[in-house]
Amino acid sequence: MSILEIIASELKGSVEFYLNNTNLDPASPGFGLTVDSTKKPQLASIASTGFALTAWVIGHARGYLDARQAVEITRGTLRTLSERVSHHRGFFAHFLDMHTGLRHKACEYSTIDTAICLNGVITAAAYFQDAEIRELASQLLERVDWNWLVFERGGRTLFHMAYNPDRQGDYVEGEPGFISQWDMSAEQKMMYLQAAPFVPPETARRLFAGFARDTGYYKGQPVIYIPGGSLFAYLFSEAWMDFGSYLDPDGVDWFENTRRAALANRSFCIENSDQFKTYHANSWGLSAGDCPRGYSVYGSPPCRGKPWHDGTVSIYAALGCLPFIPEETQALADYLYHQQPRTWGNSGFFDGYNLDVSPAWYSTSLYGIDKGCSMIMIENYLSGLIWKTYTGSDLIQKSLAVLEFTKKPGV
Fold first, then answer.
1. Rounded to two decimals, what is the model's pTM?
2. Residue 201's domain is classified under what CATH number?
3. pLDDT digit string, tens, across residues 236-274
4. Beta strand pairing status for 177-181 and 156-164?
5. CB within 8 Å of 108: residues ≥ 6 apart
6. Are 394 and 387 in contact (CB under 8 A)?
7. Which of these, 288, 319, 348, 318, lies nearest to 36 by C-alpha position?
8. Which domain holds residue 119?
């Protein structure tokens, strides 16, 4: 296959992944929920469901789904989210029973996973000209109590990261309640966009200004870095928001920041290719994902301290760089498809691979949040559809005004 055929097959296979791994039983209370990973088909992830809602938009636009099917799945999913899925003050439980929509054990109520789901809600409501979808979306967005999460620390206004009411619950250390805080640059920029219309404007601006802008350098160019240097955290908000068209209130170009981070990630792999067989100019991408031991979070400089990596390449994260460094990403996809055929399956590329273990390890699993990241970025590269739809929505346009983002000159 040519590179364009590989990319097109990956995109279609990604939408088919969601069709095959989403509860589409109309009689089920968990209708519309999508698996966290193919390793545990009974466990749904609220974030995977947000990516699935975006997949229905792509599937409709590309003709993979007919209009009626796409609208019916979207409506049913929003009804499930509104009426049956476990939430606290509008924040969804991270993991859910695939068939009931109820909270899985004592998992946390997660801000970022809720926000990823709501990005899918915003995109669906903006794309489909359907009154019920828009009404359900408005209800879901308006019930989220962002003000409840806000607190002050060290002169900064911050969001808490999660909440768990259970003493022995996930991430609880000591007393139950709030868990950690978003005080670093990571994947959470979508949260400030979603919250801006629902908190006082000055609070919205302080929240966006509140997270640290730790800066490192790649070939002399500054990069506002993720603490662990993991590639996915540069990509998740950027999958929906068209940062390529805007500057933030301080003039930061977040699109350019992600481009530099992607180049740095690739360069680090090339620099370590003498020690790791997996790494080279066409095999790179250090992120969170499937690995020989199960699941791990990898990264590259610039980052805080020494980055963790072991020869595992997260394929989805590299594919997600397509709009930012297209030539390098296409070369990777071409190499993997033709020279590493075990990285490819019925739904396109698997999650990752590692040639530095014996025997060489090839993932046979797919994660909903990973497949979704690369899927959206491929669509954005080909058409800009998700960037245009999400960024052009009334809610996001209002948020950009509140947060005082400005259009880039010439855009």
1. 0.98
2. 1.50.10.140
3. 999 999 999 999 999 999 999 999 999 999 999 999 999
4. antiparallel
5. 93, 94, 162, 163, 164, 169, 170, 171, 179
6. no
7. 288
8. 3-407
